[in-house]
Predict the 3D structure of the following.
Amino acid sequence: MTTDGALARLIRSSADRAAEAEAEVCDLCAALVPDEHAHLYDTGQEEVRCVCGPCSVLFAQGGAGDGHYRLVPRRRVRLPKVDTGVLGVPVGLVFFVPREDGTVTAQGPSPAGAMRWDVDAAAWQELAVTCPRLATVEPEVEALLVNTVHGLDHHWIVPIDDCYRMVAVVRREWRGLSGGGRVWPAVERFFEDLTERP
């Protein structure tokens, strides 16, 4: 056995272990999941969990559990401009999540994660009258995602996991006190890459 051969095997073995450590797994059964996979929303922890195909089937149409986990839908709908100013949230990059109990929360990204505000539920209902598609937002697992920063005009109904991806983009790219030069181009790319899905 040569030293070169042993070194090559050690390097390959380390690379294989690193690849396995980076691979995503189902948070329920630990099976490997592909890059494109379903998500469950954990209503108790308010977190998104990765799930494999067979496990996602269990939660389709509310089929499994006590409602603690909800299958995150894939629908994305681009909306015309929505006057979210009536909701009283003074930021231009925010997502609004209706809850099962009728309340609505607004969350905006920051370098430390998502900031959260309570929104007047009556104001949300009034806004849904002017934009009827908002009444179709599935509580807990879908959101109205808005970006009006720097004159942009993006209004989307998206799955909640898209909102968390957007928060992760801001956290990853933010530099210094004002965000630096990378965060807003990254946010714009995020919105440019959104595509409508039924």
In short: The chain has a mean pLDDT of 88.
